[in-house]
Design brief:
The protein contains 12 helices and 8 strands. By secondary structure, it is of the alpha/beta class.
Length: about 280
């Protein structure tokens, strides 16, 4: 089987590891806009060969793991270029625009939209992780529009690498992911920005930063290429979450100004219920 991986970063590299582990005699062909990433992937054995877009026609399966805006922009031409038997799967963090872009494409049945709820703050081929997908949820969107044989292969492979499958429509996915993922990253980025702007003495930051700060700001190390693209693709949903988030921040600020510590205590106590929601979720994601 000849499988292409477009985008050899954390997700693409981790997918390549699983391809090698689970599919006999697989040939993994890599495509990336970064020549450095391609050479690193080749040197470390993540991929067997480097390919160009013109070579997509020779693939059995093509996995798209580059930034979501790039997927949205290039997916129609990608489907144009592949053979009539190639399965194309995207792993982007937003789904609505991607699905709309190819809704009437002649090869729509050869495409499957997915989003693995898995990741770290690291990027590039060296971030590839053999355990990244183990026990993680794989969101599947509009599976009914994908050819049954191609779909069954994809779902079977996802299960073989330890993923838990969940079907969701693209609009619901983008709305919910804005709260549980995109807002978390924005909070981390802005916290990191605020501290760096306020605390010019970096040595003081490092000396006083405990595990609470480190865990909260961890996501601020995430790739700007990846996340600026996500924010652009999911702008409307993110603006809605920010409106709600900023309202709560203003309320907290008001309570502090009025020295209403009883209400602050009650707010914290009420929010402790999040522990039940987060039970069983691995915090490195």
């Amino acid at each position: 089987m000849r499988v292409g991986v477009a985008g050899i970063g954390l997700i693409g590299g981790s997918l390549a590891i699983q391809l090698r582990k689970t599919i006999k005699n697989v040939i993994i062909l890599g495509y990336d806009s970064s020549e450095l990433h391609l050479n690193q992937a080749l040197d470390t054995g993540l991929i067997d060969e480097i390919i160009l877009e013109n070579d997509f026609t020779d693939l059995d399966v093509l996995l798209l793991a580059y930034p979501v805006k790039q997927i949205t922009n290039q997916l129609p031409s990608v489907l144009d270029s592949v053979s009539d038997k190639t399965l194309v799967i995207d792993f982007g963090s937003t789904k609505s625009r991607i699905c709309r872009t190819i809704s009437s494409h002649p090869k729509r049945s050869q495409f499957l939209a997915t989003h693995p709820i898995a990741g770290t703050e690291f990027s590039g081929p060296f971030a590839a992780n053999k355990n990244l997908f183990d026990g993680k949820v794989q969101i599947i969107c509009e599976s009914g529009k994908t050819d049954n044989n191609l779909l069954n292969w994809a779902l079977g492979w996802f299960k073989s690498i330890g993923m838990v499958l969940k079907e969701m429509n693209p609009e619901d996915h983008d709305k919910h992911i804005a709260y549980v993922s995109h807002l978390s990253h924005i909070s981390s980025f802005i916290l990191g920005q605020t501290v760096l702007e306020k605390e010019k003495d970096e040595s003081a930051i490092f000396a006083m930063a405990g595990s609470g700060f480190a865990s909260t700001v961890r996501l601020a190390k995430s790739s700007p290429d990846t996340w600026s693209s996500i924010f652009e693709e999911n702008k409307e949903n993110i603006l809605e979450t920010l409106k709600h988030y900023l309202s709560n921040l203003e309320e907290f600020k008001f309570l502090l100004e009025k020295e209403n510590y009883k209400k602050i205590y009650e707010t914290i106590e009420k929010t402790n219920a999040i522990k039940k929601v987060l039970k069983g979720i691995k915090t490195e994601d």
